[in-house]
Each structure stands twice: as C-alpha cells, then as structure tokens.
## 1
Amino acid sequence: MTSTEQASTTRPMIEFRDVTKTYDGGQPAVDSLTMDIERGKITVFVGPSGCGKTTSLRMINRMVEPTSGRILLDGQDVAEQKAAELRRSMGYVMQSSGLMPHRTVLDNIATVPRLNGVARSTARARAKELLDVVGLAPELGRRYPGQLSGGQQQRVGVARALAADPPVLLMDEPFSAVDPVVRAELQSELIRLQRDLAKTIVFVTHDIDEATILGDRVAVFAVGGRLAQFADPEEILRAPVDDFVAGFVGRDRGFRHLSFQEGEDVTIHPIETIETGRLADPSVTVNSPWTLLVDAEGRPHGWVPEATRESVTSQADAVPGGSLYTRGDSLRRALDASLSSPSGLGVTVDDDGRVVGVVRAAEVFELIEAGRLDRGRANYNTAV
Amino acid sequence: MDYSSSNLFVQMGEWLSDPENWSGSRGIPMRIAEHLGYVGLTMLLALAIAVPLGLYVGHTGKGRVLIVSGVGILRALPTLGMVFLFALLFSRGVLPAVWALVLLAVPPVLSGIYAGVSSVNRTVVDAARSMGLTEWQILTRVELPNGLQVMLGGVRAGVLQVVATATVVAYAKADGLGVFLVEGTQINDNGRLFGGAVVIAAVAIAVDGVMALLQRFAISPGLRTTRPVARSQQESGRQEAVASAQGGTT
C-alpha cells in the first residue's frame, strides 16, 4: 500500500508522546516529554546532570520503562515489543565501552549478529570490515579489550553497535571518558561515518560544544526532565528561548556560534618563513618581527622572533605556535588561530597541513560584523 | 608394626616406605582412591546445591541477606559433630558423613559463586542487556565466564576443606585416608598416624595443584592479560572483589 509506505518514510523514526518517568515518590526524571526524532539525522540530548537526558535515551530501548506516555519506534509502540529483540534492533554505545573483557575484539563486535543467529565465520568477517570502518587496524581484532586504549575501546564500542546494521544508534555520552584530543578525533570520525551510513542517531552529552558540533538537531533538557528547547544547533546558540538555555549554552556561545559561519572570505596574507634546516646557520637572518618556522614539507613548527634570532638554532628553541586554521574552515577556527598565536597571526594551512599564509583577528572581526549586518537585513526583510 | 626406633619421624618414614602399606585393599593407593571418591561425591552434591543458588542470588540480587547469614551459620557447624548427629538421626553407613561434608563444602562454594557473579563489572552487564542479551544469556555468556576466576576460587577452597576433612568418614565406615588416623590413635601406632597425616596433606596439595591448573586454563586470556594501558577503576574494583571473595572462602 502506497499510503503506509509513505507514512513509514516520512514519519519520524522515534516519537515521544507525553512520556513521564517518575522514580519512587520523587520529582519526575522526565516530565511529559513529547518530541519527534528525525530519520537519518543526529539528534543530541544535552543538559546538566539530572535533567533526564540519559533516562529519556534509555526509555527508547526499554532499559528504563516510562511511568506514563508512549514511545513509538517507526510508528510502533516499543512497550509492545519484546525488550531483548527491540534492543537488538538498535545499536547502543555507552560511556565506558562496556566491552566484554573475556572476548576478543572481533567476538565483541560480532555479539549482536551472533545473537541474531548469524554464523560465526560470517559474523567475524563482518566484524573485520567494521574494524576498518571505525579506523582500527585489523590485527587489533585478536586482542582483548583490556589491551586497548580508551579511545580504541570506544571505537570498538561503535563498531559493535553498527555490527547488525541497525537503523537506530543510541549513544550515551560515548566520548566523555576519553581525553580532549581523542574526543575531537572520535567526533569527526562519527560525522564522517554518519555521512555514509545516515543512521538515526540519538546522542546524549552534557557538553554543549559536542552537541553543537555533532547535532543536526539539539534538544536542551532542563533539570526536572523538562525539554527546554529543541532546535538546530545554530539556533540554540543564536536564539536561546529562555534564561536556562542561555545560561547552559554558556558565556562562550557568541564564540561557539562562529563555528557556523564559514571562513571562506577571510583574507590570507603571505608570511615569511624559514626552514628548520637553515636555523643553525647564523648568516641566515630574518627580516620581519615574526618569522614562521617550517619543515621541508612546509608544515609549521613555531615562530622565530627577529629580536632573538641568534639564540634560535634548532626547532626546540622556537616559540611554540598557536592552533592552526585550515583554509576554508569556520570563522571560529580562524579567530582562535590568530588569538592563540604568539605573533597574533593565525597560521593557515591547506588540507595537507602545509602553510599557505596567516589570518588576522581584526579582519575576522570585520567579517563577523559584516555577517551580522547581512543577517539583520535578512531578518528585516522577512519581517516586512 | 615394629619400628627400629622410638623417634616419631623414623617411625613415620618406615611406615611410609613399607611396601606392604602400598598394596591391597587396605593399602595407601586404595585408601586414596576411596578418599577421593568421597570428595568427588561430596563436591557433586555441594555443587548441585550451591551453584544454582549462588548464580540465582548473584544475578538477581534477591536473597542476598539469606545467603550471607546462612553461610555464616553453616560455617559454624562442627563437621564431626554433624557426622554423629546425622548417624543418630538418619542412618548408619557413609551417607551421614557425606552429608556432613556437604554442609562443610557448601559455604565456600556458595559464597564463591555469588561473589563471582557480583564481581562482574556492572557496566559490562548493563551493556550486554542494552545490546539485547536475554537474562539467561547475560548469566551464561557474561557473568559466568567473567566471574569464573572468583567462582573457581570458592570451589577450590571447598575442595581443599573437604579433602582435609573427609577423614571423618572413617568414623562411620572403615574407608578413606581417615582410617590411618583412627587406627593409629586406637592402636597407638604413631608411624601410621603421622604417615597417614602426611599422605592426606600430599593428596590435598596435589588436588589443589590440579584445581589451580584447571582455574588457569578455564579463564579467558582476556581476563588475565597484563594491561599495557592504564587500568580503569572498574578493573581495580574487580580485583578487590576477587581478593575479598578468596579471603572469605579460605
């Protein structure tokens, strides 16, 4: 029937209908939550501790049963499905990987396919492919979880969740236990994966930054299990609906919002460079207050100030640089690169990490102001 | 038996080296076989009682208080006293002795199984449930293999106690290694008494060695690998549970 086919492709993947969860006699952990979670998109639940975001997530796969209300998965009430089968139809990734320590990485990944009756060899072959998908070397498959780093364990956790190719992924603060560098790496990997897989992902985090980076839609929960705002991340940062959301989004929201402004137009100025190999030769002088130190491939390695040129004879003596701005990235990155640089010049690199020039904070600000004017005009026009 | 000296150790050595004591239905090998037979029977009964109970309580968390206090009471029972009590109450023969030994073996096995299930990282169990394992699958595929180290520790402690205590069977029927002790006391034969004690000790050590090997091979390599990566908190928590369980069962 065409009508039902249409219904199943256009209706939200997950629907919360007036869902409340109250633990014995206490305040509601989730208070009459009604929301639609779109198919093929990343929806992030974000909020402070005790706001019911994890409870809401765990009600989707019935790890927590709602006190009242209904949750529909693809139009069907989850309460009417067998809990174990329902859970197998969704991938689940948690904060600590939750891998089974007695099984190898491959067997861990193969868990759900094996439960679904897939032959061991088939399940393992699929697990091997998934190792590659999440960016892990195939030989790690024979190891045990205890032999992996935290970041590797989280990748295995993601691979395991993907093993049965479920349409829905539930991710409960999956990257909060790893260090910031690995977290950023895992976040960009998830975005890359999602581009290919287009799963319906529900992602819980307490980190508004992570929420705005990953989310196609962001649901901000307030203490007491109230859904305070549910919108695009750009809108959450630009136009928080109330004091709670504004406060939660935080002091830096103006800065974070720059993540959504493209840096295509920012002017890249040339910069004088000196190669690391030529530092030891005192006859090589520098002619500008700050000269950028680069290696043979043109990658930046810090700054050489003109005033102290004589004392800089090796890479170790150079003044460490700030963050790098990859050409075309957001205004936030451009601004951060220039602000964090000791010279005030934001080092700009191409996709291969080679220096192409520098950006200046003042010019980034000009672009921000220009963008604000444009938006003001657009708002005025739509209002009229 | 005539000894060449009144020295206890010389007598013991002579008794142990007398070939006559190593053959026939009253010889040491036969007695060891009988002894191990009783140990095996006792452990079968004790495991049949303690394993399902320990797994149930460990997995569901129901009846935990009952288990802890029950184990405490059982531990306080004097085994020899129970042999005589059962003999008076029920029947003659070896069965009263075997049941008394079962009462001795159940506490360490039960607390070992229970502690084994409890020692499994709750996060792992939660993850398993979230992935869609049924409760039975969680018990058999997650809690059992991961708690096996602690569980076998409890079983091992139980076996050791039963090997040492199965001598009480000799009071009910002239069987097992206890015979040497009973006879040695009755006829004032110190060589036999202490030689018998040495054989019991040797059997206990050998059985414990076999159990240790079994424990080693039954455990997944993933649970005994040295960790090159920083240990997580759950890991050290698990090892504390292991330590306390083993401390509690020996």
## 2
Amino acid sequence: MELSLFARHDPYRWEIAPAGMMRVPAVIFASEQLIRDMDSKVYEQIRNVATLPGIVQAAYAMPDAHWGYGFPIGGVAAFDPAQGGVISAGGVGFDISCGVRTLHTGLHSADIANHAPQLADALFSRVPAGLGSTGHIHLAAGEVDDMLAGGARWAVAQGYGTPEDLLCTEEEGCISGALPQNVSGHARNRQRGEMGTLGSGNHYLEVQRVAEIHDSATAAVFGLSEGEIVVSIHCGSRGLGHQIGTEYLKKMAISAAEYGIELPDRELACAPITSALGQEYLGAMRAGINCALANRQIITHITREVFASVLPQATLRVLYDVSHNTCKEEQHLVNGTSRRLFVHRKGATRALGPGHPEVPRALRAAGQPVLIGGSMGTSSYVMTGTPQGMALSFGSACHGAGRAMSRHQAGKQWRGHQVIDDLAGRGIIIRSPSARGIAEEAPGAYKDVTAVVDAADAAGIARKVAKLVPMICIKG
Amino acid sequence: MEQAATVPRWVHFSHEADIGVRGIGRTKSEAFEQAALALTEVITETARVIAHEKVNIVCQAPDDELLLVDWLNAVIYEMATRHMLFSRFRVGITDHHLQGSAFGETIDLQRHRPAVEVKGATYTSLSVRQDPAGHWEAQCVVDV
C-alpha cells in the first residue's frame, strides 16, 4: 500500500484518520515493508470496520493483516453494548475459536532423532487430518449439549486429559454463557464424526524444536529452553463452527436494516449486542468456542497416547491454548475508565499483559503466552502479552504469517511432492493426505513470519520469547 | 483450472487467503450449477467423481446473491454430512426459490484425493449478474 495513505505516529503504528462514515480512526501495526506489501483491501476493510456502531477507540489491524471477509484477517475491534455496540459473525469468522495449543514434551532433539519417522507415522495414523477423515469419537445428542456447554472441561471429565491441562487453557477450558440450544441441528450434524479432527487448509499438528530464546526470563516462566521439543496443534471448531458462522451471517445480513445498521459491506453483517439476535449469536458462538476447546483437548489426548507408544519417556504438559477467531467480553481501560467491551479478534491473538487476572496464575507475572503459528517449513513463535499492548490494541497481537499468495497461485507454482522433498532435505517430515493441499500450503505462499513477529514486538503489542522450528508436520 | 471460454463453464479466481468460484451460464440456473462445479473443483477434480447418487437441495433467500451463497452452503453441508462429493448439478430457480439436485458419490480418499475442505461460501466478491452478451455470472469467495 502507499505510505501516504497513513499518518505515521511511530515507526510501527500507521493511522487512518476518520473520514466519511468512520466513527473512529483505523490503525495498522506493521513495519514499513509490511505496509508496502500489504493488500490494499486491508485499508478498505479496516476503514469499513471503523464505521460500525458502538466501536471504541479505533479499528485495528495486526502486522499479518490480509484481505478477509468484511473484517480483514488480523482485525481487532471492541464494541460497547451501552453505546449501541454490535457483534458481528463475520468479525469472528467461520472457524470460531480456531487457535493454537502448544504442549511441552520434556524431550530434547537428541531424544527423538532416531524416532522421528516412526513418530510422524504414528501421529498421522492416529490424529485424523484432512477432508473425509473422521474422528474416533461419536457423540450422542445429549453429549453434544454437554460438550458445547463444557468445552475442554467436558473433554477432561470424559477422560481426555487431566485437570492440570485446563489451568493453562484460555477460559480454563470453558467459556461461560454458551447456549447450546442456539446451535442448529445442521451445525450439530456437521460435527458428527468431527470431534478430535484437525480439519484441512492451514491446520496442522507439528512437532517443533525450540531453536532460539529471545527473552530468557519469560521463557523460564513458560518452561521453554533451547533444544526442547514441543508439540503445537492448530485447529478450531470444525464443521459445527463453520455452520454457526454461515447461519448467523445470513440472519445478521437480513436483519441489519431492521436494526438501522448501514453496512458498507454485506459481510460486515452484525446486530446490536443487546438485541435478541446479538444475544442469540453470542450464545451460539460461545458454544462454538467450547467445541474448539474440546477439540484441541481431545487431540492433546490422542497425541499423548501416540507419544506414550513411541517415546514413553515423554511427559506432555500444556504450555498454553489460545484462540484467534473470537469475540470476548472483557474489561478495558479507555481514557482512564474501565469499560465492559466485546472485543472481536479475527485472525488476531489475545495478548493479555503481565498481572492480568485471566492469565494462568503460574504464568501471570510474565504475561499471557501468545502462540504464533507458521506454515510447515517456516518457524512458529511464542510471544507474550505486554502492558503497552493492553492500551495499544486491547491486548491483541498477530496470529501467524498470513498468506502472501492465493491458494490458486500457489497450486500453480508448486507441486506437493516437490514441496515434501524440499522440506525433507531440510530435515522436516511432512505427512498429509493431500499432495495438492501441500502445494497450496507451500511455505513460500506465506509472508515471512519472522518479519510479522518482529513488527509486533517492535510495535509493543507483544514481545518475542522463543522461536520454534518444525521437525514433523501433520498437515490436514 | 480454467476451462476454455465456452458457456456454460466455471472459473476459479484469486483471493489472497482463499479462492473464488465463478459459474457462467446461459441462464441464472446454469450459472448456479457451474458455480457449484467450481466449488467441487476447489476440493477435487470433478472428473474423478462418479455421479451415481442424487441428493435434492431446496433453498430460499431474499435476493439472488444470498440465494447463491445459500445454494453453495447447502452443497457444502451435504458434502460434509453425507461424506460425499458431487460432479453434476441441476438447478431450477423461480422467484429466489431454488430447487436443485447434486449427483455424486461417497468420498473415496484414494481416488478423489481431496485437497482441502471448504468451510463456507462468503459474501466476499459476491455477485449474480448478466453480462452484456446475456450470459449469467454467479460468483463468490469460499473460505477454506
């Protein structure tokens, strides 16, 4: 994008002054290079978000922002219900509560060196990945309601994991206020056979090595040390979340006029938080969040079983589990006043600063772990929330590299087998049911995740703690 | 991924994170059928899918554009819940009321080698219109 479109308040903060129907400014956190490379649709979309009723402070875009649906991917916006604020199904996205869970293993590189292919095969055969794969768990109708109300807590009660897992999971594994009765029969049908599955696209399970420590004090609190092996799981609420998103997007698009909401883009469909439809969606979306939390908990359990069979000396403990497609009710200081806001994060990770009561007690002094996913050959990062970030972006940071190239282009540029061979040459084992899927997800189709993370760090919205490099990737 | 410029046909177009599907037909219904083929081609090559089982689909929406999204989402729903892929579609549209059929078979992972699952049809780059030559184009981006 043209730099002249923005007022540059500091080297990593680019502001668009309110114009036309914008109620607040729009702000993008990025380096100059990332701004230059960013799709101009981000500019259009973040300005559109700034027009929505009840938006507070500013509409934000993270350094990995790219063209999304109504909201840019990497968009953050907070709304005040007392000022006509809205909730938007598009502002959460189809994959409700898609997120990353990272597990310690207690192992070091040398421990898995001779077992990596065996571990890759065992993970690939046990963790269902890709279209057409089905989970090992089939829930009866009543159990679905319990899962939607209970999230990862439900999963642990069913024997998938331990109570300690919940302590280091966002919302302690279960968001309150979920209303399973608002989740349609269609959404439930789409979830049949999908519990404990990764899905496809950019979702994965990776075995990673901690390659660099950038902040040793925080890394020590998080229990990360160089050479340690961790496992990261990236997936969401599967078919159930997708169907909730689909249904409420339509309801909100049709009813926006009734609520007197003028939409610059239909995809921004929303409803006042206090309206019947707003409350209905909120209850369904929270049930979707619980579905995602339960899903990652079940995959954790399966992963433990695999490690127990291949590397029995491993002990898998949850470092943290954080979502990047949500709308959450949070208290934030705005101009010195504490306000109850509904913060949308679409492709953006919550990044609560040190001392925040919602950060797990054991990690609280260091801030909330912010888990940034890579793409097969690229690195992932562990960051932490900062005090400044709470004021700058409602405690939000980036979520990944973001695509630099469409799936269409990537599919033309690469062949799946060639990508797998290239990565094997770098010591990265890929297991996937689809060669074409691998080509479309080739590492070269993504932006440089390090540039994104460095920009988030320099902007002050999160701080780099550790770099993770992939060893095994199970790709959906 | 693009067929020759005959009508009816389907096309994929680029979206930064995802992919756009466009159906082109002599009638609106034909454009909707082609858009559904473009949707399937995001997942697999339709030539690999045998059209031997029929699933009926009905949908209704206040306008053509929402009807296209509804139609594609209904196809996505049937694929997901029946574990099927489709390679032929029949659509009839009267006053924003659609009656359609999808013809296909149960997914065979070895034969179909699905690349990716589609989460939903979106309102991004959504349009249903007639070009100056009288051909209908129905398109939107799908989230994968």
